[in-house]
Amino acid sequence: MDKQISKEDEFFAKQEFERRRKHEEASRLAMAAEEKKRLKDLHFMNCPKCGMKLIEIEYKNIKIDKCSHCEGVWLDVGELDEIVKDKGGKFTTLLKVFNI
User: Fold this and answer.
1) Nearest Cα to Cα of residue 89 among 57, 60, 56, 58
2) How many contiguous H segments (helices) and E segments (strands) does the chain have?
3) For residues 70 and 48, is the Cβ–Cβ distance under 8 A?
4) Which has the higher per-residue pLDDT, 42 or 21?
5) Residues 61-91, buried b or exposed e (16+ Cβ, 10 A)?
6) Exposed end of the chain (fewer CB within 10 Å): N or C?
């Protein structure tokens, strides 16, 4: 009889551990998501170089970000490819717009 109680105790202990482990994992994932959102909010539209605000300018359907302080020009994923592949001279005109 003691052997049966021991197996039951072991079974319930394992189930309790697994329940708590899943709860801890869910808490960790929630904290990671909150931290990611906090960092995004903190850095959104700030210059990666100097941290000052970026000014977004739309030029020929491409949104280009220019720093208000160091005047760095930043592009989002795919925007440089879009500028370079255009045969209509977007790149040359873009350089003139930003005094580069």
Assistant:
1) 60
2) 3, 3
3) no
4) 21
5) ebebbbbeeeeeeeeeeebeeebeeeeeebe
6) N
